[in-house]
């Protein structure tokens, strides 16, 4: 059955009433850190969560818990620094403050399964993974020197990717759309209204990827007997337990890692550099490729924001990126990549657009 949904004012009244019951007689006390948690969740209005996820709830069966409470509880878990859902469920049993701030009556908190059921509703795909588990054993990506960006991908590859994306429908549904809608409507729009993103009619957007390690090594199972026959390494099909992840190069730590790249657009010309569009990409994906995918998705999904400047590091120094930005009247500020393969983006750029009006100083645009 559909859940009973509260307004934010009803949630606030609930918190006030419950705190009086459990903390009013002085047997339980707050510490200073607790007040900052109370303040954060007091002003965070998540009451639209059910409306945004409505299609994911069945009309029959037992009554569901208001998803706003589960989302709030999960955010509180992250604020407290607890990484495990199982341990968090125990903490909700132990600590009245955590249960109340989540929106649950102390003693009537949900179990582990309820949380995982909620996470499934945020992912609109029948499988937990986008890639098939059975796939070829790929070659490892080639790393570089410490602190050095990987060479920018061949320009033709980036240009081809852009051409392919143009042909595809921009509004193609993605499994993470529900999560993105929650992020956009309950967080990003609020930040924009409060002026925390800077001028949304002329946004300066910086984009970069950060490594997100999910395991210490590739998890796969061999299906062939090449090793016994002395054929090492082999590129045969294997079964991967995390097929959406692969090996990537972390240029900052100078090492390989297994997992994702979290490629994020942030509002750079604002007091807090808040994220605008976070997107997980496989670890081996080059930042320039991730940027192309994110830029296309961002422009289509966030039509109310106007992009004015793009601030990117040397990994994005590629001619198709300059061309894409200038065709949309976005000013590019891209660091030069001294390891670029083929002709340099900037060098080619100046021959194509000699009157850009930017001054080039040492290793970047000013
Ligand atoms: Zn083999």
Short précis:
By secondary structure, the chain is an alpha+beta fold.
Structural write-up:
This is Transposase. It comes from Alicyclobacillus fastidiosus. This protein is an alpha+beta fold and 366 residues long. It has 2 domains: 8-121, no CATH class; 134-365, no CATH class. The chain has 12 helices and 11 strands. It has helices spanning 8-23, 32-43, 49-53, 67-80, 85-94, 96-102, 112-121, 155-167, 177-193, 287-301, 319-327, 345-352, and strands spanning 134-136, 203-215, 220-222, 237-240, 246-250, 255-267, 275-282, 307-312, 331-334, 360-361, 364-365. The strands form 3 sheets. Strands 2, 5, 6, 7, 8 and 9 form a 6-stranded mixed sheet that branches. A 3-stranded antiparallel sheet has the order 1-4-3, with no helix packed on it. A hairpin with a 2-residue loop joins strand 10 (360-361) and strand 11 (364-365). Helix 1 runs antiparallel to helix 6, helix 4 crosses helix 6 and helix 8 packs parallel to helix 10 (287-301). The longest helix is centred in the middle third of the chain and has 17 residues, at 177-193. The radius of gyration is 24 Å and the shape is globular. The N and C termini lie far apart (58 Å). Residues 224, 226, 234, 236 line the site of zinc ion.
